[in-house]
Amino acid sequence: QSVLTQPPSVSAAPGQKVTISCSGSSSNIGNNYVSWYQQLPGTAPKLLIYDNNKRPSGIPDRFSGSKSGTSATLGITGLQTGDEADYYCGTWDSSLSVGVFGGGTKLTVL
Amino acid sequence: EVQLVESGGVVVQPGGSLRLSCAASGFTFDDYAMHWVRQAPGKGLEWVSLISWDGGSTYYADSVKGRFTISRDNSKNSLYLQMNSLRAEDTALYYCAKDIGYGGNSGAFDIWGQGTMVTVSS
After folding, report:
1. Contact between B106 and A56 using a beta-carbon 8 Å cutoff
2. Tens-digit pLDDT profile for chain B (122 aa)?
3. Touching A: B residues 45-104, CB under 8 Å
4. Which of A33, A47, A96 is nearest residue B109 as measured by Cβ atoms?
5. What is the dihedral of CA B111, B116, B120, B122, to 10 degrees?
């Protein structure tokens, strides 16, 4: 059971937009920055979003992040078949003094 | 090129010990906190441990506290994870990851290694 809650799967057609939610509590998302990771099959995770809504160099602006209260959202526009992957949210939990991840969301581009 | 390369993963018996290493290159290693994150086969990511830039502060997931020890040698640009009293549930791909925050723990990991596989089995 993950500390952060994500939907197990989402799907959408190529070119469409999809959002992935991440729900936590005041001790984690509510008081810390959220990051998002993409993990393509057989590869290491890749940072997509940090500090709730910042993109590292090289990440296209099709990927966006937002946070409100104890929830965060990853948005992906202009979906491509290459976006099919597992997506994870993560943050720090100030009460437990541990890092925490969501259980992951599998994105299928139909 | 910024790079992290893990090593040391093997098959070990329950109750055994193992030391993982992570060699860093392409950035100023002692400016950043470092983490270990693991992923059991077919499962999601699990944060394992954090060490501050100077090694002065360490944090652990409850699942490994008291059994695992994180350390670093800044003179060798290397991160380590000493794993004792290993259990079957410790079987996973272990990644080292660089914290994105300069000088502190931001909770975000911008550089990941390729991972090293630890299998605990008799």
Report:
1. no
2. 999 999 999 999 999 999 999 999 999 999 999 999 999 999 999 999 999 999 999 999 999 999 999 999 999 999 999 999 999 999 999 999 999 988 778 889 999 999 999 999 99
3. 45-47, 50, 59-62, 95, 100
4. A47
5. 170
